Amino acid sequence: MIVVDIDQNSEEWDKERLGAITSSCFGQIVDSKGNRSKSRQKYMDKLASEIITGEREKSYNNKAMDQGHERESENRDYYAFINSVNVETVGFCWKDEKKIYGSSPDGLVDEDGLVECKNHNGAGQISRLRDGWTASEHHRQAHGQMLVTGRKWCDVVSYCRGMKTVTVRFNRDEDFLRKLEVELIMFYNDLQKLVELIKS
After folding, report:
1. pLDDT tens digit string along 31-49?
2. Who contacts 48 (Cβ-Cβ below 8 Å, separation ≥6)?
3. Contacts of 5 by beta carbon, 8 Å cutoff, 6+ apart
4. Nearest residue to 17 via CA among 73, 65, 56, 66
5. What does the pLDDT average to over 11-23?
6. What DSSP character marks residue 30?
7. What's the CATH class of domain 2-198?
8. Fewer CB within 10 A of the end CB, N or C, for the chain?
9. Is 28 left (phi over 0), alpha (psi -120 to 50) or beta?
10. How many CB atoms lie within 10 A of CB 2?
């Protein structure tokens, strides 16, 4: 793993990730079983555009998303406190020197773990506390972070100020990770071909 020492959401962080295949979007490359996702081409087109133009497409941020970013450190600190663990923040991580794909984990936990902070509104958090939560929508992101960092597990934490947290732990699924890595490499190769095809 190669760690780039920059602040997340900074201008330098945006530049490092420009045109990069990142774990938050691995769900656009594969489905939960490791098969190709229907949104694969759309994501590839987006990255090809970034590589060729040198500009990132502006993403839409609503009030809830802005609040989520603001409370990420609060979520992370609370997680560290209630679990008596050390959490290290990092900027961006590449799997290796080839820089085919990478990740921006919310935190490295002790020697073996990761934490991914998800912040929710009150009604949604109550529903998760009452009915349970599998965090299945974050399965590919969590495993992508484990693939990049080599870590053994990832805790996905749903947080809402003033309420209990809900934590779902994903342990490494080696079969899924093998499928994911193959698809990521194939995606990268197809992306390079697309860039060569359409750039002037």
Report:
1. 999 999 999 999 999 999 9
2. 19, 191, 194, 195, 198
3. 90, 91
4. 56
5. 96
6. B
7. alpha beta
8. C
9. alpha
10. 13
- Give residue 35's pLDDT: 96
Query: In a 3-state reduction of DSSP, which class is residue 54?
Result: coil
Hey, CA dihedral for 35, 41, 46, 51, is it positive or negative? positive
**Whole-Å CA distances, 67 to 62, 74, 161:** 9, 11, 11
Q: What pTM did the predictor assign?
A: 0.92
> CB under 8 Å to 200, separation ≥6 — which residues?
none
The residue to which tokens 């870590």 are assigned: 151
Amino acid at 198: I
**Residue ranges per structural domain of the chain:** 2-198
As a residue count, the chain comes to 200
- The candidate with the shortest Cα–Cα distance to 138, out of 179, 178, 166, is 166
User: Quick one: pLDDT band at residue 68, thresholds 50, 70, 90?
Assistant: low
Closest CA to 21 of 171, 198, 156, 189: 189
- The residue among 78, 61, 158 whose CA lies nearest residue 117 is 158
